[in-house]
Design a protein that fits this description.
The protein is of the alpha+beta class and about 180 residues long. The protein has helices at about 1-25, 55-60, 100-110, 125-130; strands at about 25-30, 35, 40-50, 70-75, 80-85, 90-95, 110-120, 150-155, 165-170. The protein has a 7-stranded mixed β-sheet. The protein has a two-stranded antiparallel sheet with strand order 1-2. The radius of gyration is 18 Å and the shape is globular.
């Protein structure tokens, strides 16, 4: 009985949080887009470019006690990726499969932290907002990957020299807060 009530309360809180986040978005008069409240957004993962996932995951497993929960081949970005859950986000290990593209060139410079990924409700609306704010996109339109229904990168020259990935509908939903 108590467990069922706890689940109902949790579901209700999640519904309220979703409604509250949507209501906190504000229409920018005459601009043609809805401004997202970024303070309510969730960091889905931090992407780290590595030479080899099997080698790179060992310190996370042995030193930090983390565990890879999913590995994907991501042809859209010429990479293989592995996700390790950390409380309410992920570490994403990214292994380039093409040394000639952006990820491969990044690895040739030493690899390491590559991007921060935010999960958004409506990527198309966020793209309109970014375009209205003159933020450059790495690709002209969102891409599909096995990890996300839609994904897109913002140009780091317009985001404080940090590569930002935006995703919608993750196949690996964020871990629950512990």
């Amino acid at each position: 009985m108590a467990n069922g009530l706890t689940n109902q309360i949790t579901d209700h809180i999640l519904l309220l949080e979703k409604k509250f986040a949507i209501s906190r978005q504000k229409e920018i008069t005459g601009k043609g887009y809805t401004q997202m409240n970024w303070q309510d957004s969730k960091v889905h993962h931090i992407g780290i470019v590595v030479e080899d996932i099997d080698t790179a995951k060992k310190p996370y497993e042995t030193v930090l006690g983390m565990e890879v929960i999913q590995v994907y081949d991501v042809e859209a970005f010429s990479a293989k990726v592995a996700f390790l859950p950390v409380k309410n986000t992920y570490i994403e290990l990214v292994q380039p499969t093409n040394p000639e593209d952006g990820l491969g060139r990044f690895l040739q410079k030493g690899g390491g932290i590559h991007h921060i990924c935010y999960e958004v409700e409506d990527l198309d609306a966020v793209v309109k907002e970014m375009q209205a704010k003159k933020v450059r996109l790495i690709s002209d339109e969102p891409k599909w990957t096995p990890c996300f229904e839609k994904t897109l990168f913002l140009h780091p020259k317009d985001t404080g020299n940090v590569l930002i990935e935006l995703v919608e509908k993750a196949s690996c939903p964020l871990p629950a807060m512990k």
